[in-house]
Amino acid sequence: MWGQIIIALVCASEILAHDCVIPSSSQFSRASYRRYHGRTASGKTIYDAGERLIVGTWIRVVCNKDRQGDAVLKVSNHLCSAGNWSPALPVCQEYARCGAPHRVENATASERITPYITFPHQTVVHYKCNAGFDKRGTIAYVKCVDGEWTSADVICVDRTTITSEKKENTEITTQNNVRIPITTARTIPLCIEPDISHGKLVKNVTSGYYDVICDVGFKVISPKSIRCLRGVWSEPIPQCDIRK
């Protein structure tokens, strides 16, 4: 009798040794383990942590959505073979979301940007210059990578300030005494936007000057506008001070 019990225990141990277990450790907690086809024996679609499955069972591993409801990051299929999962079960990584990306002046972003919206990992935001503005720079997009945005160097500049060209008609005389009119162009350098804390510059299309608009709660310290003359701003540069 004892011999039969021992043999039965040995057989059971061998069977269990070939079973596979749904992991329960915290590093696997971001995944759900589902039946490859249909439902489990108990009628469920998802296996419980620690549940044992027999050799030959296929499961589907789904890296869960994060708390904000981002799209599923990864789906993979695995087979229980001689006590091990093949291929090995993935560890679902949690990626941080990004806050609002920086705004590009005089450009429209492909996503709505407010201080209250966050963006999931791998989100790409493109910038397009508004009508009347030309793009300068090579990278016109940013990408969210695990909580941090990549860098963009694009700026959008008013066409009237970028290349205010003055054409001059002159003539040259060739060796055959033929007078040929030619046109030369001079490009006036543009000004680099000054750093105005709590404020920004807005071009006054009527006067050609740039007015300073301060943030809420701040006021302009005279002068209220400046002008760009051949790459140099008129002095002094306006500032924004807190209202008292």
SSE layout:
Elements: H1 2-18, E1 20-21, E2 31-35, E3 52-53, E4 58-63, E5 75-81, E6 84-86, E7 107-109, E8 124-129, E9 133-136, E10 141-145, E11 148-149, E12 155-158, H2 159-162, E13 165-173, E14 179-187, E15 199-203, E16 210-214, E17 218-221, E18 225-226, E19 228-229, E20 232-233, E21 239-242
Antiparallel strand pairs: 1-3, 2-4, 4-5, 5-6, 7-8, 8-10, 9-12, 10-11, 13-14, 15-16, 16-18, 17-21, 19-20
How is this structure best described in words?
The chain has about 240 residues and is mainly beta. About 10% of the residues lie in helices and about 35% in strands. The chain has helices spanning about 1-20, 160; strands at about 20, 30-35, 50-55, 60-65, 75-80, 85, 105-110, 125-130, 135, 140-145, 150, 155-160, 165-175, 180-185, 200-205, 210-215, 220, 225, 230, 230-235, 240. It has a four-stranded antiparallel sheet with strand order 2-4-5-6, with no helix packed on it. It has a four-stranded antiparallel sheet with strand order 7-8-10-11, with no helix packed on it. The chain has a three-stranded antiparallel sheet with strand order 15-16-18, with no helix packed on it. A hairpin with a 2-residue loop joins strand 10 (about 140-145) and strand 11 (about 150). The longest helix has 17 residues, at about 1-20. The radius of gyration is 34 Å and the shape is elongated. It starts with a helix and ends with a strand. The relative contact order is 0.08. The model is unreliable at about 1-15 and about 160-190 (pLDDT under 50).
